[in-house]
Amino acid sequence: MVSFPDSEVRDAVGGRCEPEGAESREAEAECGATKEQRGRTIVWRNVVLMALLHTGALYAVLLVPKAHPFTWIWSYVCFIITALGVTAGAHRLWSHRSYKAKLPLRIFLAAANSMAFQNDIFEWSRDHRAHHKYSETDGDPHNAKRGFFFAHIGWLFLRKHNDVIEKGKRLDLSDLLADPVVVFQRRHYKTSVVVMCFLLPTLVPWYFWGECIWNSYFLAAILRYTISLNVAWLVNSAAHMYGNRPYDRNINPRENCFVSFGAIGEGYHNYHHTFPFDYAASELGLRFNPTTCFIDLMCWFGLASDRKKATPEMIKARKLRTGDGSA
Ligand SMILES: [Zn+2]
Ligand SMILES: [Zn+2]
């Protein structure tokens, strides 16, 4: 799973070379890049921005002892909201349609998704559908066969491979465009990111308990954002390389408890790639799966419904047929 501020960062540089709906030949002519070059051309602006962001996050760690304890708690709350915007929102709701959500919940998840600043919902879901459909080929935006570094962060440092663009155009995304919440978030994405990812996390500690803006910005915005990105990227890297394959030994995605712990339930990746429609993204119910707890809670409140789940019989039969026998 998981993408990154393509439209804000990468597409700001490579974007003119990857206009949506434009023919690839036109795009190539515009950038002067061949198909072979496209997957290897470095986007230096992203390299610099990521270096700055991670340096800022390291500096933020030094500020932790100086910050108010409420600021630590607030940063963690922002981390959880951020994560839900991706896991319960862009991933399980919009990419996979594994449950249905009413308007108030969709608005909350879209706002949380802007706090995550990993591309707007439409773009994230398009890339994620490509990740599943063309998994570990050149059509996969973070193809793990190109190594840990590429799957984790390196894919943001290179222009998209031509197959990602070409094959991405074949995906049916009409359901996303039919959701006014998705369209609204896409239209106002930059503003929503400034407000949700940076302003709100910074201003709340300053306004409510007198935290200095400097501490507040580096902890609740920069550090929280950097950690949330890396945790999400681990699903693309570590969970495609380390762990068991009890459901399908023929694919690379793995069951990785450590990733699940950080990514609030998204590390059961062999299960998820085998049963992508399952709203829990795991056979194990609520264990290490706060996202599933959240969706269940929303159903209890009447804000969500129609959770899709693989049946025990289906799971057992699949394990026997293609599993590696590890569970
Ligand atoms: Zn998925
Ligand atoms: Zn995956």
TrEMBL record:
One GO process term, biological-process aspect: unsaturated fatty acid biosynthetic process
Pfam family, one: FA_desaturase
Record keyword Oxidoreductase present: yes
Sorted UniProt keywords: Fatty acid biosynthesis, Fatty acid metabolism, Iron, Lipid biosynthesis, Lipid metabolism, Membrane, Metal-binding, Oxidoreductase, Transmembrane, Transmembrane helix
InterPro entries assigned to the protein according to its UniProt record, in alphabetical order: Acyl-CoA_DS, FA_desaturase_dom, FADS-1_CS
Note on domains (UniProt): The histidine box domains are involved in binding the catalytic metal ions.
Name listed for the protein in its UniProt record: Fatty acid desaturase domain-containing protein
